Amino acid sequence: MKLVYTSVVVLVSSVLIFLSFAHSYSPSSTPSAENSMPGKRTIIVELFTSEGCSSCPPADALLKTLSEQQPVPGTEIIALEEHVDYWDHLGWKDPFSSAEFSERQNEYAKAFENSGVYTPQMIVDGHTEFVGSRAGEARETIQKAASQPKATIQLIPTERSISGTAAYDIKITDLSNLSQGRDVELWVAMTEKGLHTDVKAGENSGEHLQHAAVVRTIHKTNSFSSPNSYQTHIALKINPSWQRENLSFVAFAVDKDSRKIIGAASAKL
């Protein structure tokens, strides 16, 4: 009788464990979408680069390593690889280049009071800039940025049935100690990973270049002043030529006066 009782207990326990496991991995369960690495400080690392620039491939490789290996403990690195267009007339037209990225870099040059722009330029959280191939400086700067307080940004996907857009409700909290009543800008971007090029001309002729998360589009959506929180809805159109499985939606809050990024989040589509 004791053996039978023990067997029943074991059987019931096994069933309960199985049901608990099945519930935890149920395909129908939908976790809330927010910063992709909860509990970590999220840092934006921008790289202004060009396939026509011979000194840029090492910087591209560094950004790719930072974004894929996430080597800084307690930190999530969001890579924004922005290809400028002012190299395009020097032998090779970069297929990922855009005037909007060149304009964004020029705006940074004004904020940093630089005399001009250059490639490769890496900028961490809109606050610190340096030559983009300097691995040690990049790691040190990211660690320093991660020690600063950050606003919290949640990305909640909506309108999933519309295949040609990426739509999110964006909620920003913990702003009061960061913005101190100043205006804050909300920026959004779409990035695509897995991109590569066989360069046929220019300074990198004959090279096979592999990229990090290439920015497909980036723009300011809103400017606001809020004591602690802000919420909005953003939908970005997806170009049919982009590979949806490689796309990420990125949102970040910027202090309008200093250009410093005070919070960020990303979500894979």
What can you tell me about this protein's structure?
With about 270 residues, the protein is an alpha+beta fold. About 25% of the residues lie in helices and about 35% in strands. The protein has five helices and 13 strands. The chain has a four-stranded mixed β-sheet, with helices on both faces. The longest helix has 23 residues, at about 1-25.
Task: Describe the secondary-structure layout.
Blueprint: H1 2-24, E1 41-49, H2 57-69, E2 75-83, H3 99-112, E3 121-124, E4 128-131, H4 135-146, E5 152-158, E6 165-173, H5 176-179, E7 184-192, E8 196-198, E9 208-210, E10 214-224, E11 230-237, E12 247-255, E13 261-268
Parallel strand pairs: 1-2
Antiparallel strand pairs: 1-3, 3-4, 5-6, 6-11, 7-10, 7-12, 8-9, 12-13
**Shape, principal axes of CA atoms:** globular
User: Runs with pLDDT <50, length 5+?
Assistant: 1-35
Category by helix and strand content: alpha+beta
Radius of gyration: 22 Å
**Beta-strand percent range:** 25-35%
Average pLDDT score: 87
By DSSP, the count of extended strands is 13
How many angstroms does the end-to-end distance come to? 57 Å
Order the strands across the largest sheet as they lie in space.
2-1-3-4
Q: In sequence order, what are the helices and strands, one letter per element? A: HEHEHEEHEEHEEEEEEE
How would you characterize the largest beta sheet? 4 strands, mixed
Helical segment tally?
Answer: 5
Tell me roughly what share of residues is in helical segments.
10-25%
Indicate the multimeric state. single chain
